[in-house]
């Protein structure tokens, strides 16, 4: 097996290799992942503190549920673009043996393009709902955090995910031999 065959046989390895390059795009690509990892650490620490305070002192963190919802939204939506680019989404591949290589490439292009186009509507709709929450002055229950910030965050990262899917589809057309995500 040549080095070229070895690099194309494992798409995850190709992605990891491309992330080792030192370019601004690398940092842009991994920044949301590091942000999600930091938020996950905060969530873990808060949950630990909540359990200790609840068990030892009978005094839990009152806003733990609210913060957990906020942190989970941040983790999920900031991870979506890179998961989508890597093609690490959950898939059911029961029908894959029925597709030839050429048909599979067409199917993957159509799926990426459709996912990108379909995600544009939720991004727009969540933005509209966030704007409505801003106009009404909606705030969270315990911390009084404005709700529209979370909506904007979800909307922006849904839009970035849509653009990521469309970019994957375009990459499949421009360079079908190198588009082994």
Task: Supply the key terms.
0% strand, 181 residues, 6 helices, 76% helix
Please explain how this structure is put together.
The chain is built from six helices and no strands. With 181 residues, it is mostly helical. Helix 5 (101-136) packs antiparallel against helix 6 (147-174).
Oligomer: single chain
Global geometry: elongated
Mean pLDDT: 87
Order of helices and strands: HHHHHH
**Runs with pLDDT <50, length 5+?**
5-9, 11-17
Decide which structural class fits the backbone: mainly alpha
Beta strand %: under 5%
What's the helical proportion of residues?
over 70%
Compute the number of helices.
Answer: 6
Distance between the termini: 20 Å
Number of strands: 0
Main beta sheet strand tally, sense and closure:
none
Rg over CA atoms: 20 Å
Short description:
The chain is an all-alpha fold and 181 residues long.
Indicate the topology.
Elements: H1 3-9, H2 11-19, H3 24-57, H4 64-86, H5 101-136, H6 147-174
Helix pairs in contact: 3-4, 4-6, 5-6
């Amino acid at each position: 097996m040549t080095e070229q065959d070895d690099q194309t046989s494992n798409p995850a390895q190709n992605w990891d290799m491309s992330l080792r390059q030192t370019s601004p795009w690398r940092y842009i690509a991994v920044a949301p992942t590091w942000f999600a990892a930091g938020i996950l650490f905060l969530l873990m620490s808060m949950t630990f503190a909540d359990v200790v305070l609840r068990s030892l002192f009978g005094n839990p963190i009152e806003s733990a549920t609210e913060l957990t919802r906020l942190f989970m939204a941040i983790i999920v939506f900031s991870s979506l673009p890179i998961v989508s680019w890597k093609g690490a989404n959950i898939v059911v591949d029961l029908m894959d043996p029925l597709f030839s290589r050429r048909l599979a490439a067409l199917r993957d292009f159509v799926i990426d393009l459709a996912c990108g186009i379909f995600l544009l509507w939720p991004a727009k709709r969540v933005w509209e709902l966030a704007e409505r929450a801003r106009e009404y002055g909606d705030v969270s229950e315990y911390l009084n955090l404005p709700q529209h910030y979370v909506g904007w965050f979800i909307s922006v990262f849904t839009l970035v995910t849509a653009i990521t899917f469309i970019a994957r589809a375009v990459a499949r057309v421009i360079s079908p031999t190198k588009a082994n995500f």
